[in-house]
Amino acid sequence: MEEVIQDKPLLLKAVEMIVSNPADIKKQVIAMENQYYEKYGGKKSKDQIQALMCEHIIKNYSYFTAFSGGVTALAGIVPGLGTLVSTLGGGTADAALCMKWQIEMVMAIASIYGRDITNEEEKMICFMVAGLGAINEFGKNGFKNIGNKAFCNMIKQYLSGTTLQGVKQIFKQVGITFTQKAALKAAPFGISVIISSGANKLLTKYVGSKAIAFYNPIGSCYENDIVTESDEGDFEASMA
To answer: Which of 9, 36, 197, 238 is geometrically suited to a Cys-Cys bond with 172, CB 3.0 to 4.6 A?
Structure first.
């Protein structure tokens, strides 16, 4: 068992240090469901209510990730982040914080569609969906235009082996991708901060759309991408 832990990619270990407990995310989703079904029950279908919840969650997390470039300023707010910065440095902590929020968003979406994210296997699949989404969005050779069906097939290919091994393979590549992206931080006059903020926000919307495609039992794995672009007012529920 010790050998399995040691060969985890650095980024994966860093994310595991700060990612929220799935049980806490599940409780937030249940509270959100109660509010949404109380407000929209009898007016909208279950599918429509779930879509509204997913839209709100993706919107909230897109704002969180937009500020992940300021990891030092957030060190006192996100539990464990200060330790991560001092141990691994700001670059790895920045990438870990961005992926923490991608994963938590995927967990919330998975919970909306009935997955038990407190189950370790389901938790690892959330890591897989978020990681592969990040690779595809920021990768080269046009991968960011990959359709939902192709994305879901890629997830299923990784699931044909052990889930943990698939997650390790994906996060090894995620680490490489973020390292290449970090070169933008050398840009002058704070331009990199603007690029990073906008790119992280788009990344979150992309990963959210792929999570919906994967977990939605009705619209799952079809070619028509679902991307939430609305920036209208928040609903009552708040995912923190």
So the answer is: 9
Q: Which two tokens stand for residue 63?
A: 């704002």
- Spell out the domain ranges in the chain: 9-215
Helices (H), 19-142: 22-40, 46-66, 81-88, 90-112, 120-138
Q: Measured between alpha carbons, how far is residue 166 from residues 89, 95, 238 in Å?
A: 26, 19, 32
Kindly state the DSSP code that residue 78 receives in the 8-state scheme.
S
Query: 214, 201, 186: which is closest to 58 by C-alpha?
Result: 201
Q: Extract the tokens encoding 207.
A: 């990963």
- pLDDT of the residue at 196: 60
3-class DSSP assignment, residue 195: helix
Residue 156 to residues 97, 100, 140, 149, 150: CA-CA distances in angstroms? Answer: 26, 22, 22, 11, 10
**pLDDT, mean of residues 227-238:** 35
User: Looking at residue 161, what is its pLDDT?
Assistant: 83
Burial level of 15, CB count in 10 A (0-12/13-18/19+)?
buried
> 10: helix, coil or strand?
helix
How far is CA 60 from each of CA 66, 71, 111, 133, 159, rounded to the nearest angstrom? 10, 18, 16, 18, 29
Helix (H, G, I), strand (E, B) or coil at 44: strand
Query: How far is Cα 126 from Cα 164, in angstroms, rounded to an integer?
Result: 11
